[in-house]
Design brief:
The chain is mostly beta strands and 737 residues long. The protein has a five-stranded mixed sheet, covered by helices on one side. It has a five-stranded mixed sheet with strand order 4-11-9-6-7, with no helix packed on it. It is globular, with a radius of gyration of 24 Å.
C-alpha cells in the first residue's frame, strides 16, 4: 500500500531492516516467531520471492485509480473468496481518473534492446534506490449487499447500496497512462554466465518518451566481489515497450554457495514537453540469484532459528461485501452502539452507513484540506467511545494548506499535488440531532500538527527524490518545530488513530522520508524531539501529551511529551489491546515486515535496524550513516515480536488488524491478533499468550489483496476495507463439520 497501507527494497516497500546484534538483555532469538513461506496458497506463492508491495504505504495511488477502472473490464480477475461478482449498475460507478486498457496478456514484442552496463559506479547511500511496486488491477466485486449483523432496531433487510449518491465531484480522466515494471521478480544466473539480464517493460499506453532509473544493491552477494554495481537510466522511445538491463557477474574461485543481490527501478518520468503520464508498476525490485560454480561451502557453525509452526486453522472464511461503489476507502470505525459505520475515503470524504443503509450525504467532506495523492490522504478515523458526552470523530490526514489554492497550476505545490506537505490529527463534532451521521467541517480542532503549516515546509519540492532539499520542520538553530508532522515524501506520512482502554488517543506517524532511497532525514525517528516515526499518546480533547508518557518534559505541548514509542518507518496500522499494549505493523524496506510491541518508551530501531530472524538486523547502507555508530553503541532497541522475510517468506507489505475479542467468529479466534499482506492477500491470525507474545500463527484466509484495514465491530463481526475494489466487507466463518 504507496497509500499507507495502499503504498523498496534496499539491498517496500513493504520492509518498511550486518552483523548480528541483539539489544535487549532479556531477548532470546526464539521469542520472535517467523512465518515460513506457505506452500499451499496459490495467492501467496504468486507474490513470493522478492517481489514487493510497498505500503499503500508506498504504492502509486494515481496508478490505483486507473487500475480500479480497468479492473471493471477484466472479468477473469479473482475476487475475495465468497464475494459474488457482477456488473454494478451504471449509476453506481463513480467517474474514475484513468481507465487504461489493460490487455489480458502482454504480447511478445519483436524487438528487445539491450542496455549496456555503464561504467563501474559504486552505489552510495545518496543514490540508493528501493522502489515501491504499485497495486495490480483488481475488479469491483459484489453487486448484492447482504444484511449487516443484527443490532438494536436494525432492519432485517438491507437495501442495495450501489445507488446511493452524494455531491462528490467526479475525478478528471487522464490521457494515455503507462506503467514501468520489472518483468521477472526473480532472476537466476550462473556465476560463469557473464551477465544477469533483468527485463523491464512498459505497459498501458506506449505513446511518448519515458524513462526510469535503476540501481543494484548488495545482499548476500557483494558488489565488486560477486557482481559489478550498476546504475543507469532506461529510456523507452515512443512505441517501445520492453528493455533489458545487464549486470556483469564476477566469476571468482571461492566456494560460497548461491548468493543474491537486488536491482530496483524508481523515478519514472516522461519528457517535460509531453502530456504522457507514467508511473511505476509492480514489481519494482528483482532479486538476482547467482549459482556458485565452485565446490560446496562448509556447513554453517550455528543452526538457523527454527520457524514458528503455521497451524491449519480448519476454518472456511467467506468474504461478504457490505458496502461497495466507494472511492478508495482507507478505513472504518463504528459508533459505540454499532449502528453507524463511518467509512473514510482517501480524498477526504467520510461516508456513513446507518443500520445497514448508506446515507445519501457524507458525514464529513474535508477534501478542501486533504492532500489525497499517492500514499497520502485521509488514512484513518476513530470515534470517541463516549459519544454522548464527547460527540467527536477523529481524522488523521495529510494536509493541504489554503496556500495550495494560490498555486493551482504548479505541478508540486497545487492542490492534491506531490510536493512536500505535513500531517494533522483533528477532531470534528458530530451532530446528535442527526443520530451522529453528520459533522460540521468548521468544527475542526487540530490536536496534533497545529504547526503543519505552509511556512514550515517547501511545497515546491518533492523530497522523495530531491535530497538537496533540507528536512522540513527544523528551526534555524537545528531544533525541531513543535507540533509539526513532516511529510518529506509521497509516502510514510500519517497512519492510524485508535482509542486505548485508558480512554486516550494513540496515533502512528511515519518517518516522512523517501521510500526508494537511503534518506539521512530518517534519523529523526529516534529523536524524541521530532514527531516523525513515532507512536503518540494524546489527550483526546486537547491533544496535549500526558503526564505519564515516558518522555514527558513538564510541558504537555512539547513534542517529546507526546511521544510514546519511537524508531518506526511506516507504522501504517496499530492495535491497542485491552491490556494497553500497542501492537504496530511496520511496513519494511529492504528485508523484513515487522510486528512490534513493547513497553512505554520502547525504541524499535529504524532506520538503523530492520526486522531480523531471531535478532535485530542492522539495516544495509543505513548502518553507514554518521549517526549509526553512536546509536549502535548507546541505544537499547526493542526487537520485533514477529518478522517476515521478503526473500524467504514472500512478504510484501504488512497490514496489522485488530485483536479479536468478539463472539461472532469461532471461539478459537478469541484473543488472536489478525494481520495480512497487502499484495499476496494472505490473512493470518496470531495466537497470543498471557503476556501478549505470539505463540503461533495460523492462516485465516487468502485472496484478500488490497485489504488496508481489518477491524472488529462493536457486535463482534470482523470487517475488512479493500482500497482497490472500493468495498467494505466482513468475514464469516463456517467451522468444518
Amino acid at each position: 500500500m504507496n497509500l499507507n497501507p495502499i503504498t523498496p527494497r534496499g539491498r517496500n516497500l513493504p520492509s518498511l531492516a550486518d552483523e548480528p546484534d541483539t539489544n535487549s538483555e532479556s531477548y532470546k532469538p526464539s521469542d520472535v516467531p517467523v512465518l515460513p513461506a506457505p506452500t499451499n496458497s496459490a495467492a501467496f506463492n504468486a507474490g513470493a520471492g522478492s517481489t514487493r508491495f510497498r505500503s499503500f504505504a508506498e504504492n502509486d495511488m494515481a496508478d490505483l485509480r486507473r487500475r480500479q477502472a480497468a479492473a471493471r473490464q477484466a472479468a477473469d480477475i479473482p475476487t475475495l473468496p465468497g464475494a459474488a461478482v457482477s456488473s454494478p449498475a451504471p449509476s453506481a460507478i463513480p467517474t474514475l481518473p484513468a481507465a487504461d486498457n489493460i490487455p489480458s496478456a502482454i504480447p511478445t514484442l519483436p524487438a528487445e534492446s539491450t542496455i549496456p552496463s555503464p561504467a563501474l559506479n559504486l552505489p552510495t547511500a545518496e543514490n540508493t534506490s528501493s522502489a515501491v511496486p504499485t497495486l495490480p488491477a483488481a475488479e469491483n466485486t459484489s453487486s448484492a449487499v447482504p444484511t449487516l449483523p443484527a443490532a438494536e432496531n436494525t432492519p432485517s433487510t438491507v437495501p442495495t447500496l450501489q445507488g446511493a449518491t452524494d455531491s462528490l465531484t467526479p475525478l478528471p480522466t487522464q490521457k494515455n497512462p503507462s506503467r514501468i515494471s520489472i518483468v521477472d521478480g526473480n532472476v537466476n544466473v550462473g556465476e560463469g554466465d557473464g551477465n544477469a539480464q533483468i527485463r523491464v517493460e512498459r505497459s498501458g499506453g506506449s505513446e511518448g518518451r519515458v524513462s526510469v532509473d535503476y540501481q543494484t544493491f548488495s545482499n548476500t552477494a557483494q558488489d565488486n566481489a560477486d557482481f559489478t554495481p550498476t546504475t543507469g537510466t532506461v529510456t523507452f522511445e515512443d512505441g517501445e515497450t520492453r528493455k533489458t538491463i545487464e549486470v556483469p557477474i564476477v566469476d571468482d574461485s571461492d566456494a560460497e554457495g548461491s548468493e543474491t543481490f537486488n536491482l530496483t527501478i524508481d523515478s519514472a518520468r516522461a519528457d517535460t514537453d509531453s502530456d504522457t503520464e507514467v508511473s511505476l508498476g509492480a514489481p519494482r525490485t528483482a532479486t538476482v540469484s547467482i549459482a556458485d560454480n565452485d565446490s560446496a561451502p562448509p556447513e554453517p557453525t550455528t543452526a538457523p532459528t527454527a520457524p514458528t509452526k503455521v497451524a491449519d486453522s480448519g476454518a472456511e472464511p467467506k468474504a461478504v461485501t457490505v458496502v461497495d461503489g466507494l472511492t478508495k476507502p482507507t478505513s472504518i470505525d463504528f459508533s459505540p452502539d454499532g449502528r453507524n459505520m463511518y467509512v473514510a475515503e482517501q480524498g477526504g470524504v467520510i461516508k456513513v452507513v446507518r443500520d445497514g443503509v448508506q446515507q445519501s450525504a457524507p458525514a464529513l467532506d474535508i477534501r478542501d484540506r486533504v492532500n489525497g495523492t499517492r500514499d497520502r490522504g485521509l488514512l484513518d478515523v476513530a470515534v470517541h467511545p463516549d459519544i454522548e458526552n464527547h460527540p467527536y470523530i477523529y481524522a488523521i490526514y495529510t494536509y493541504d494548506p489554503p496556500q495550495v489554492n494560490d498555486n493551482p497550476d504548479d505541478p508540486l505545490a497545487g492542490p492534491d499535488k506531490n510536493g512536500n506537505r505535513a500531517g494533522r490529527i483533528s477532531r470534528f463534532t458530530l451532530d446528535a440531532a442527526s443520530n451522529y451521521t453528520t459533522a460540521d467541517p468548521d468544527s475542526e480542532v487540530v490536536l496534533a500538527g497545529k504547526n503543519s503549516t505552509w511556512e514550515n515546509f517547501n511545497a515546491f519540492a518533492n523530497s522523495t527524490n530531491n535530497f538537496d532539499e533540507p528536512p522540513a520542520g527544523v528551526n534555524p538553530d537545528g531544533s525541531y518545530v513543535q507540533d509539526f508532522i513532516a511529510t518529506d515524501s509521497e509516502s510514510h506520512t500519517v497512519g492510524s488513530v485508535e482509542f486505548g482502554p485508558d480512554g486516550n488517543l494513540y496515533a502512528s506517524i511515519g518517518d516522512g522520508t523517501s521510500y526508494n532511497r537511503v534518506d539521512p532525514r530518517s534519523v529523526r525517528t529516534v529523536d524524541n524531539n521530532s514527531l516523525s516515526g513515532k507512536i503518540l499518546r494524546l489527550d483526546p480533547i486537547s491533544g496535549e501529551g500526558l503526564s505519564d508518557n515516558p518522555f514527558y518534559t513538564g510541558d504537555p505541548n512539547d513534542n517529546a511529551s507526546k511521544v510514546y514509542q519511537s524508531g518506526l518507518r511506516n507504522p501504517f496500522r496499530i492495535s491497542v489491546a485491552e491490556s494497553g499494549k500497542v501492537y504496530i505493523g511496520d511496513v519494511g524496506w529492504s528485508s523484513y515486515e515487522e510486528i512490534n510491541a513493547g513497553e512505554p518508551g520502547a525504541n524499535f530501531g529504524w532506520p538503523f535496524f530492520e526486522g531480523g530472524k531471531g535478532q535485530n538486523s542492522r539495516t544495509s547502507q543505513y548502518e553507514n550513516l554518521p549517526e549509526a555508530a553512536e546509536f549502535y553503541a548507546n541505544t537499547k532497541v526493542t526487537p520485533g515480536i514477529y518478522s517476515a522475510s521478503h526473500e524467504q517468506d514472500g512478504a510484501n507489505a504488512i497490514v496489522l488488524g485488530d485483536i479479536y475479542t468478539g463472539d461472532k467468529l469461532p471461539a478459537k479466534y478469541k484473543g488472536d491478533l489478525f494481520f495480512s499482506d497487502l499484495q499476496t492477500g494472505v490473512v493470518n491470525n496470531a495466537n497470543l499468550d498471557a503476556n501478549g507474545n505470539i505463540e503461533s500463527i495460523e492462516q485465516f484466509a487468502t485472496g484478500a489483496q488490497y485489504v488496508v484495514q481489518t477491524v472488529q465491530s462493536p457486535d463482534g463481526d470482523l470487517y475488512y476495507v479493500n482500497v482497490v475494489e472500493g468495498e467494505v466487507g466482513r468475514w464469516e466463518v463456517t467451522e468444518p463439520s
